[in-house]
Amino acid sequence: MTTEENKRFEIFGLCFVKWTMKETVSKLTERIQNNQFTHVVTGNPIMVMAALENESYMKNLQSADIIVPDGSGIIWASKQFDDPIPERVAGFDLMHELLRVGETLGWKVFLLGTDAETIAKAELRLKDQFPRIQWVGHHHGFFKGDEDVHVLELLAEKQPDLLFVARSAALQEPWIAKHREKLSSKLVMGVGGSFDVISGKLKRAPKVWIMLRLEWFYRLIQEPWRLPRMVAIPKFMLAVKRARARK
Description:
Layout: H1 3-6, E1 8-11, E2 14-17, H2 21-33, E3 38-43, H3 45-53, H4 55-62, E4 66-69, H5 72-80, H6 91-105, E5 108-113, H7 116-129, E6 134-139, H8 148-158, E7 162-166, H9 172-179, E8 187-190, H10 194-199, H11 207-211, H12 215-222, H13 227-230, H14 232-246
Helix pairs in contact: 2-6, 3-4, 3-14, 4-9
C-alpha cells in the first residue's frame, strides 16, 4: 500500500484524505500546475448518509479524485475507528486558500451556482479580496438539463483553472460527476452555500461556534428549512457506533 493510500480514512464506502489544510492546498496546487484534472468533494455526514441511501449518488462521490473531511462528524468518526484525521478541511476555507495561491500564480477562476444576484455579488466581493485572480466569469446554478450544453460551452471558452460549483445537494455532485470530462477546468469543487455567505446573503458561524463543532446548527438557525436534512447527522453517528461495535 502506498503512502497516499495509507493517508485515507474509509467510512461506508467513501475514502477521505487524511491531510491537513496545508497539505491539501499543496497537493491540489501541484495537480493544477501539472494540468491534472481534479474533482474535489467536500464531504460531510449528510452526504455520506445520502450516498448509503442512493447507489447513484454513492457512485458520484466515489468517482471524485479527492474527498476532503469538511464535516466535523467525519473527524469524530475517524477517531471512533482509531484512524484519526488530523483536522477538518472546510470547503469554504479551502476555496479561499486556493484563491490565495491563485493570486500568486495568476490562475483563472469561474463561479457557477446559486441565483443570478447572489453569484454576481459573490464575485464582486471576491474580486475585491483577490484582485490579482483572473476572474473569467460566473453563471447562476438554476439551469436545467437542456441548458447544460450552453454552460459547458461557456466553460470551454473561458478555460478556468478553478471552477467552484454551488448547486442544490441533489444536483451539485451528480452534475459534476456527469460532466467531469467536459468541464474544461483543472480543478472543480462543490462549495455548497459558500456563495451565499460570501455575498452577504447568509452569515458564517462565529469562530467559537466552529470550534464547538456547531457550525451546522448556526446555519440551521438561518435556514430552518434544512431541518429534515439534519436528521442524517444522528443517523450517521448511530451507524458509526454500530459499525464500531462490530469490529
